[in-house]
Amino acid sequence: MITEAIILAGGLGTRLRTVVTDVPKCMAPVADKPFLAYLINALQNQGIERFIFSLGYKSEVIQQYLQAEFPGLNYAVVVEDKALGTGGAIKLACSKVSGNDVLIFNGDTYFDIDIKAFSAFHTSKNAACSIALKPMQQFERYGSVEVDPSGIITAFHEKKYIENGMINGGIYALKVQPFLQLPFPDVFSFENAYLEKSVASQRISGKAFDQFFIDIGIPEDFSKAQKLLPDFYQKYFTPIQKGMGYTLFLDRDGVINHEKKGDYINNWSEFTFYDGVPEALKLFSEKFDYIFIVTNQRGVGRGITREEELKLIHQKMLAEIEKAGGKIDQIYYCADVDDSSPNRKPNTGMALMAKTHYPGVDFKKSFMVGNTGSDMQFGRNIGAFTVFLTTTKPDEKDENRQRIDRYYPGLVDFAKDLS
Question: Domains along the chain?
């Protein structure tokens, strides 16, 4: 499978200027979160391990966002000094690709193809370039594509009204070195100068995916995306069943049990489950392959909470959870006082310990549930889907909304949504 992806995010977005005026098109807010976040998370979930962002207009906005919200992401950046067209942008980004083939995505389009199947198709056709095609009905906004029964593209047609046809879905698999060896100018169109002119001389293949597709390039579709994309995204990340390799990371205080305001839970008598949580953990145990508690316990490091009492709290907590039919695979806690500790959230040490102890853990198929911005950043740092509970700090959901994939009033509500 191809695991490197170029994201084309350098366009001016002139057609969106009436509704999005101050950020690049890929940063346009969809349900209070940049469109780019949906794309990155979906690609990570399907196994993309390295990203190359091809930037131009207001590139600093995107770079600052990536540094703040995806600090653990494996990525490189190229920036156009001038507008290079789609071809020039791809050619520039290809200089950063380490493999023989790369996937290419538009930063303003979400097309839910099966990346593994698309990669296999590209390889099987020995194609110079493969295109993910989208079947459409009654359209005139897009040009159409003709493909023969073997999957080889035979023609591209200009935009005109068509009852039924295939369109270029804006996702490509490209053989890098053959493309770089072609004598293109610095500025050129990938679609016109490469794809259309290569049909006769190169092997260009196309595979249809009749999956969710949305392009936010015009105000009407940007408006539709506000509901359609979050609704789809929720369904995309929650068909969870045991055996599918999903992992659940849970904070403790404010998630499993009531916090002690302004203080620490120092003994079992001060520990109180939220109503229904043991039962919710039974449901999670039926769906997730691994469940871990990851909790900062600074009170131990400060000498306020005795470590023996903390271990006793966890022992009795686990007994109650098991009595209700649930199971926690491991509890990881960090007693360090210093925020720079690699094990203290939002740093990823506790997650890395879990992966060491349980090699089947896949961060791209993980959920992080918490009630603080630190929990959400921890989730972002490992590439997990983040769930924010408004149990104790409801105002933080607004401050951290770019780090949050879903909100719930409590853990039980999240469990109900998965059932």
Answer: 4-236 (3.90.550.10), 247-418 (3.40.50.1000)
* Catalytic option among 101, 215, 253, 336: 253
Whether 210 is catalytic is no
Asked if residue 101 lies in contact with residue 130, where contact means CB atoms within 8 angstroms, the answer is: no
Q: List, for residues 179-214, the tens digit of each pLDDT value.
A: 999 999 999 999 999 999 888 788 899 999 988 898
Highest mean pLDDT (candidates 26-40, 47-61, 244-258): 244-258
User: Could you read off the pLDDT of 272-324 as tens digits, one per residue?
Assistant: 999 999 999 999 999 999 999 999 999 999 999 999 999 999 999 999 999 99
251 catalytic per annotation: yes
Q: Which of 408, 409, 404, 402 is nearest to 62 (CA)?
A: 402
Q: Which residues contact 315 (CB under 8 A, 6 or more apart)?
A: none
The residues near 256 (Cβ < 8 Å, ≥ 6 apart) are 250, 273, 274, 277, 281, 293, 317, 411
Structure tokens at 411: 């853990």
Structure tokens at 347: 């740093």
pTM value? 0.65
Q: What is the CA radius of gyration of the chain?
A: 24
Among the options 251, 289, 336, 362, which is catalytic? 251
